[in-house]
């Protein structure tokens, strides 16, 4: 049924949306909420692609502005309806304008309620609101500077009898951006439904006029207008009917299925998850791969001695891929260059050995098949593997000219790999750098080999065009040098790098408004250098006074016999590290049990680069106190150390289960706040939300791998056996923005951690109420908690 007649529309104006979300009995268990979310339903924070029923075009806001032909004055961003197309492959374009127009799956709007906070790539969805018939929403387009769709008071650019539809500056107060969706069946907003879209302020319908915009704005772009209900009959039939063409969860909303809910809140991982097609590789996985290829070498050569005539014959075969028997045998599985080549050999070289080398022994062929049959080919894993090296180079400003030779320099130390990178490897890294928009890194990598000169010169041209327009850099989140450069990698301006950064920062913040997307682009842009400084150890630690190290007993007789050793990295907000918290035998047990059964965390490699998420390259397993004796013991110990409740057998949401993680090549976690995790419902239903993060370091890391808090200027080096913890909220219960943190990639080593997220509700009787609610959540616990305080004594004493 087409929603066309005025009668249906007026009936729709008086229909109430589903009472399920505003009345009725609450669900008994939040688990039911998580498991009942259909992915094709529209929620606040969803991404929505909207298509015209009649002309089959997509509603869009372009990153260019309307211009009055007479006065030349600019208006809002161009709202139009663009021709649909098949999904485009991920690729790199040569100009700022082309990059803005590139959308592989068509234009998607962020959907939110007017009460939501408008943020870049992140929408306040606490609690998550299901949107239905007649409910008010904003339609926000990120690429057009976060503007929201609006029906304005101006005439449409072509059809002057109708109102102009434009993208305007978005804010929670933009009443001209408020629309109501009237659904064909009066129900929920669901993928595939037909709708009328009514502007709440002007009471006009969003419609096509039946005419195209001028070619100035794009060939074949249809005009979108606002039509009053009285004049709806003046437009051709069905031009005011839209289809919810595709719905997907927002980029920063995590969909929690039954398996993940079980892992986080119930019994932990009971079996290996098959959640993705191929696993990410941790350092332990790489070690396993290398042991397997050493076994293949021994089988082929039929000897433990690798210097034989048959080894020379195999050397000649391996040389076509840039390897040798000696280089493979001396591979260092902690070195990123050797790790890259282990993965590449597994995906390419050993298949070639099986098919092309003179291997008559059936046992040898069988051992190779057993080794590689479950491993994907290079086309599947190459992007994530190259991106891992790119992460290291970018974050630590490593020299690609040295990296291709297998040399990794960090803080005065040199880690030498047995293998090197070739032209095809560097070309691949350059492609990934372009896709990630790291233009400065791409230029540095392409400068290594003369064979890549053509791509090198093209990238410099693109780079210099973008640097000339800081707005382009901000809108597209490019990383670049701070000024144009020439082919000798020399700066073309007589302006210092520091002056260029300062000038760019001023221009960046001067041209954006407080609630616009670019404010947060700017924040990310200018957090990059402080994060690099902390990851590389270039900034001194903040001065806390004389009490940076303390002995913690809480006046508890039991703890006086074995006090905790606290090192404070920050007082307000609190970042503390307790040393010698866990025994070596306990660490070994956790590592062994995690290695024997790991789940995917959370990234995998799949064929389409667009779907690839390798920002975290690691593998993990969840452990629950309900099923694991050692984990219960560690929670009791952590409760003593932090004076917090971690486990209640009758309430699963006191804290989340332990997540034991082994990182991989280039493994890192980008800037984030822990308290924004799992934003799919009201935090109060899952223990009040995360109030403290506790990370136990299960290994030392020879180089890299810090946890960095850029706003606090704090960087913590992993120390095996220590417990790092920090608060995530203010006393008002809001997210403490200063606690944004980063896990730097590992340069050399094998990083293991065990994460524990502690929820708020069960801690409310452990700390005094704060008079100043804006104060950071919790002082150091030993200043508030005492064994002699009857409020705490029953929970602290343990034996």
Would you write up a description of this structure?
- With 799 residues, the protein is α+β, with helices and mostly antiparallel strands.
- Helix content is 29%, strand content 21%.
- The chain is built from 21 helices and 31 strands.
- The strands form 6 sheets. Strands 1, 2, 3, 4, 7, 8, 9, 10, 11, 12, 13 and 14 form a 12-stranded antiparallel β-sheet that branches. Strands 17-18-19-28-24-31-22-21-20 form a 9-stranded antiparallel β-sheet, covered by helices on one side. A 4-stranded antiparallel β-sheet has the order 23-29-26-27, with helices on one face.
- Helix 5 packs antiparallel against helix 9 (362-372) and helix 8 (336-356) packs across helix 9 (362-372).
- The longest helix is centred in the middle third of the chain and has 21 residues, at 336-356.
- The termini are far apart.
- The N terminus and C terminus are likely disordered.
Q: What's the topology here?
A:
Elements: H1 6-13, H2 30-35, E1 47-52, E2 57-67, E3 74-83, H3 96-101, E4 109-112, E5 118-119, E6 122-123, E7 136-141, E8 147-155, E9 163-168, E10 179-183, E11 194-199, E12 204-212, E13 222-228, E14 242-248, H4 258-265, H5 283-301, H6 309-318, H7 325-329, H8 336-356, H9 362-372, H10 378-396, H11 400-403, E15 407-410, E16 413-416, H12 423-435, H13 439-446, H14 453-467, H15 470-476, H16 497-510, H17 517-535, E17 549-552, H18 557-561, E18 564-570, E19 575-579, H19 584-596, E20 599-601, E21 618-623, H20 629-642, E22 658-663, E23 669-672, E24 690-697, E25 703-704, E26 707-709, E27 714-716, E28 723-727, E29 741-743, E30 746-748, E31 752-759, H21 790-796
Antiparallel strand pairs: 1-4, 1-14, 2-3, 3-9, 3-13, 4-7, 5-6, 7-8, 7-10, 8-9, 9-13, 10-11, 11-14, 12-13, 15-16, 17-18, 18-19, 19-28, 20-21, 21-22, 22-31, 23-29, 24-28, 24-31, 25-30, 26-27, 26-29
